[in-house]
Specification:
The chain is an alpha+beta fold. 28% of the residues lie in helices and 21% in strands.
Amino acid sequence: MMRRRIEIHCCFSRIFRWLSYGLFLPVTLSGVWALEYPTNKDLAKHLKAAAASQRKVVHVESFLKTPDKTELWFVELGAGKDEERKRRPALLLIAGIEGNDLAGTVSALAWLESLTKGYANDEKIRKLLDTTTIYIFPRLNPAGADSFSAKPKRETLVNNRPVDDDNDGMVDEDGPEDLNNDGLITWMRVEDPAGEYMLDPVEPRLLIKAEKTKGEQGTWRYLSEGRDNDKDEAWNEDGPGGINFNRNFPFNYRFFAPWAGLHQMSEAETRALADFIVAHPNIAVVFTFGSADNLIQTPKGEAPKRPPTAIHEEDVAFYRELGKGWRETLGLKKELSGASEPGAFSDWIYYHRGRLSLAARAWTPALQVELAKSKSGKEAEKPKEEKPKEEKKEKDDKKAKEEAPGPKKEDKTAADQSGDKAPKKAEGDTRNEEERAFLKWIDENAPEAFVAWRSFDHPDFPGKKVEIGGFAPFAKTNPPEERLDELAQKHSTFLTELAGKLPRIAIRKAEAKHLGNSIYDVTIQVENTGYLPTSLAQGNVTREVHPTRVVVKVDEKSILSGTRTTMLGPIEGSGGMKEARWIIHTGQRAKLDVEVISMLAGSVEASIELKQQN
């Protein structure tokens, strides 16, 4: 693992720094500029500018160079010396672990900026960074993210490693192509009686899988845009890349699964990340932006068993409460559907490393639709102003004309556009309901996110009807850029609150009672002033989280009762307390030094004054 400290030169003036900051990536939360999806070069410039603006707390490094020579960046935030930061409670944020997670990277950068600016004038943030260490990997898969700015634009989750996806002895020989030269890799629907799909009975711009049990017959095939380059009658099954880093970790890893890699942590990036986590045992909480999501919906729990298949039943309450906080911050009024995937990084962190591991999709169509519903509901609650009678009469007359029977010019369906007759609408058919609602939202807010279906004379399908169009790349995984500002602010708020919930040990009471002849009864009460416990139940199961311990700094011969190191075990959050006690012969000492050490909650020292009774 290569790590190179970035030298930030003093010669940059403040004016130049802020000008360059605004020009290459305007990610201020002030609303003056709209946020943008950064290229890898933009990302590097932004990080260096953040470090230059607040050297005391922002430390930027090139973590390693990927196999294709792209820099993978790492940020450490916190005041004090390197050794001090390693001993403090820490939070790790991972974004861009999948190539199509662009919004997560923007939110990571926005949070970095809010902390950097806040350290100078926000007492809460100053206290946080003086007592907490924050690690950020803003983009773990820079190669995948490059596809957003590539020509043509192509959405991918994987890195650039050549892989023989279809096991035909060749690599990356059958990828997608921009057949209609519109600069986008979209979709093809091919009319075929052997196809699995049919036009959505409610929204014919969409396809839906035909259900044989309902007497439905498929009439379309649904493929990514391109040709069958290797003539194996499969389309785009072996494109450029690659490995999905979020399928490459040990827990529930699936050998030979698509995008999973040759073996666990087979990639330089995933292995380096795992080594980093092992080398930083102070990481108490990990937050990952990616396809796995355990915040939008409370995960199920179970009694501990081997191997585990669900969250430890004693830890579920933390996921439930933090998930509730996440949804409230976003503005959601209900849980949505959340799930994980085999080999996910966030699962490895919890099930193997025993840390609290929160994961969320930065944005989803379902989230956007629900937020739109909430907003429209609030608007509906506002009292409407009474309109003049004449204006109301004109509106009523217009409405009556619109509702009158007969054809209307605007009554064109998507099927009419493509030359098909729209299927008869099935009343009560809720299949594809989420996608229909999202398409409606797109029509009203981001029409460029859906490409109208257009006929194409495809050489692989002579005599068959082929249309190219559908959802544009990244349309279903990342919001329109004008929505990033509000989203990033919400994410930043939650992450700051989460960092404030780390476990933190303190000494509630430390006293020594003189028993005579320089012998003392010593009592230490250790409390956890943080929200989270010093170890989750899963941390105890895995034994990857060492017990909190108290060390009395005397030689063993002086201890008449007890041991020099006393294990306290997990201490509950929100004021949980445990006590340690010794009988010690102190000799001529005037004070007794003790140290409390917690792997995830930091360490604290105290000196107990030894007073002899007269």
